[in-house]
Each structure stands twice: as structure tokens, then as C-alpha cells.
Amino acid sequence: KQEVTQIPAALSVPEGENLVLNCSFTDSAIYNLQWFRQDPGKGLTSLLLIQSSQREQTSGRLNASLDKSSGRSTLYIAASQPGDSATYLCAVVPLQGGSEKLVFGKGTKLTVNP
Amino acid sequence: DTGVSQDPRHKITKRGQNVTFRCDPISEHNRLYWYRQTLGQGPEFLTYFQNEAQLEKSRLLSDRFSAERPKGSFSTLEIQRTEQGDSAMYLCASTLGAYYGYTFGSGTRLTVV
């Protein structure tokens, strides 16, 4: 059974700092991996999607990497801003099973202090 | 297209009442998913539709839960005889397929009192 773990559970940094969020998964047989952002009481906003054949994806100040063989992904946020404060969720789509459902980690709650 | 819409945004209900939530996916997306998220946890899969067919249901989906997607468009999730343990955020997502990634709605926050 695929399990996704995100470390740390919470992170507090001063504005302007570069930071890395970690995601690990137990089964490397995945279709792809997606990073989401969730603001309190809100739905999920997609940040980056990495296919299993890719190593990284970039969008603005965000860069996500994928090492499928070791079961790891990182989300790098450059020059953090208070508006980046949110919970960041990592999810994989296992190859096994036909529904292509997402399997989520518990998230990392990020606070960027002004 | 304005994305995935969910209604209502918030629902407070008394224990034992029935509630129904609605999800309108992105119009061209044939796949629709329901997830449940409790405080401090990641979303957990509940059920999946491809067009109008419900193809998978999680063991989390007890017999008090039922979901439909008539005509392969919007979907409804009904909970009968609600319990306090049903209090959660119910999220809907749609996609053309995993390759394209998933788009989520804003969710319905259910509170059972």
C-alpha cells in the first residue's frame, strides 16, 4: 500500500529565506506526483505536476524535484514571502489500480514571518 | 471555464439529519473524485466516477454514504443519518486523466452538532 510522508509537519521561517519541503513515498511505481497548496478552510490549489519520467518542474519561485527510485520529492521555495504561508500537500498517483486516485501526505504547514 | 465548483461551502447539521453536497467539475473532464479531509490530515479518497459510472468506492464510504453522477456531469454526495465523526471537509476533484493533473474545488465544510 502506497504511503506518503511529509517532513517537517510545520515550518516557520523569516521572510526572504529559501526553504525546502520534503515528501517521501514508499512505492516507486507511480504515474506522477503533484504538489498542492491549501489555505486555511479552503480547497487545494495545484502548484506543480511532475510526471514519473521527469526530474523537476519550475514555476516562478517554486521548483519541485522528483527522484522516483529513492521515493523522494522536494519543493523548493525561493525568497519566501508572508503570502506563501499555507499548508503544502504532496500527492502521488500509484500505477497500481485503475482509478488513478491521489494518495496524499499530511502536509507541511508553512509560516513565513514578516 | 471557472474550474471545479462545490456547493454549499459550509453546512452545519444536527446529528441524524441527511445532507447532500454538489460538485460541478470542469465541463470536459470525464473523471470525478470525492475526498474527505479531517483536521491536520491529508485528503483521503472516497469514490471515483468515470463519466456516469461509479468505478471505485473506498472502505471509508459506509452504507450511509451514496454518490451519483447522473449523465456524467455534476455529482452529488449524500450522507444519511449524519454522525459527529462525519464532520470534515469534503473535496471534489476532476481531471481528463492522471497525466493532466487534478483540479480541486473549494470544498464543503460539514459540521455535525
Short description:
Chain A is mainly beta and 114 residues long.
CA gyration radius of chain A, whole angstroms: 14 Å
Secondary-structure element order of chain A, as H and E? EEEEEEEEEEE
Compute the average pLDDT of chain B: 95
- Biggest sheet of chain B: strands, sense, closure? 7 strands, mixed
Q: Low-confidence runs of chain A (pLDDT<50, min 5 residues)?
A: none
Number of strands of chain A: 11
How would you portray this structure in words?
The complex is a heterodimer of chains A (114) and B (113). Chain A has 114 residues and is mainly beta. Helices cover 0% and strands 58% of the residues of chain A. In chain A, the strands form 2 sheets. In chain A, strands 2, 4, 5, 9, 10 and 11 form a 6-stranded mixed sheet that branches. Chain A has a 5-stranded antiparallel sheet with strand order 1-3-8-7-6, with no helix packed on it. In chain A, a hairpin with a 4-residue loop joins strand 7 and strand 8. Chain B is globular. Chain B is built from no helices and 11 strands. Chain B has 113 residues and is mostly beta strands. In chain B, strand 4 and strand 5 form a beta hairpin. The interface between A and B is medium-sized, with 27 and 29 residues.
Question: What key attributes describe this structure?
Answer:
heterodimer, A: 114 residues, mainly beta, six-stranded mixed sheet, five-stranded antiparallel sheet, 0% helix, 58% strand, globular, B: 113 residues, seven-stranded mixed sheet, four-stranded antiparallel sheet, 11 strands
